Amino acid sequence: MQQIFESIAIALRAIWANKLRSFMTVLGNIVAVTSIVTVVSLIQGLNAMVSRAIVTDVGADSFTIQRLPPVRTAEDEERTRNNPPVTLREAEAVARFSPEIRAVMAQAQRRGNVSYRGQVLENIQIQGVTSEYLEFETFDAERGRMMTASEVDRNQPVALLGWDVAEQLFGEVTPLDKTLDIQGTHFRVVGVSAQKGGVFGASMDGFAVIPLGAHLQMFGARQSLALMIKPTSPAALRTAMDDATVALRVARRMAPREPDNFGIYTSDTLLGIYEQATTGIFAVLVGVVALSLLVGGIVIMNIMLMVVSERTREIGLRKAVGARRKDIMSQVLTESITLSTIGGLGGILLGFLAARGISAVTPLPARLEPWSIALGIGITAIVGLFFGAFPASRAARLDPIEALRRE
After folding, report:
1. Which pLDDT tens digit goes with each residue over 41-56?
2. Domain assignments of the chain as residue spans, ordered by start
């Protein structure tokens, strides 16, 4: 162990004695690791943000049935274009079919205007829900209360507002029991949801929740609904999905060989689509990093060959006084690995600063993962070991007599 530390100390002194050359040597590694840490930090932050948004929207222990399935190709879009709308009658059929289903909430969403005393908010998401919405954790009331099942069933003009809508319309004034206008209809505010944040700079708090019957009267009764379905337990999720599929196919009188003319979404489904969309980014990242590391490794190998040539007499002298081949090889490899690893550490610092800088000026979040630090250090150490092997072997093979004769 002491010998290793001595080798590292010698390597550091040699690197410090040639600071500019050492910096230019590891520049490729710095660029590669900076790329790794920057992109990984941004992607991890983005993944966390998207996962949180999907779980908030769909729910971790529930699933959603919609008119259209997850569309990935033009053929999928053409095939599903004429799918029939999802109706309240079908929601009731699904709820009755399976003992594994705890609640089925029918929901409709449209964009509309919300106003209070002359102040108008445009393009607000207006959500209509049935009384089963109370069973889903995606709905909450931080201030005031939720709409009661009785109010929803009787289509009372009550509303639950998103945090941004309440803040922009009412400011410091409490919105509770105030009457606002949604698409020309008066509604009384009974509650305000907790702040959920945003995704890609778009707020998740710009919404108003009202009874589904009032929503259908406002926007038309022929629109397709989304069914949020909660199983009796998380373990029953797959069984509940299968039962809901059968119930909907029976309600639509579909033949056994007909493909489903509706879509089922879980949080995992949406996360899978997101991951598929970002696969190309990872592929490009791997290519860029591999190229940078290859260039950096070649530069390190050439510099180490030059170092061996410059220190030929020193190597010859060490071998003459008893240094073994493995001692010479170990010293050169240690210097190569140390040089490469210093580049990795510099890249980690620059990558973290770059990710934080991008996060500060854009909606993209950044999150530095410990494994990305370990990856950066590990990769650069391996690069130093691999590309330092040939110079080290060459130094170890030097004849001490011939080495001492060189000027």
Report:
1. 777 777 666 666 555 5
2. 2-52+278-405, 63-265
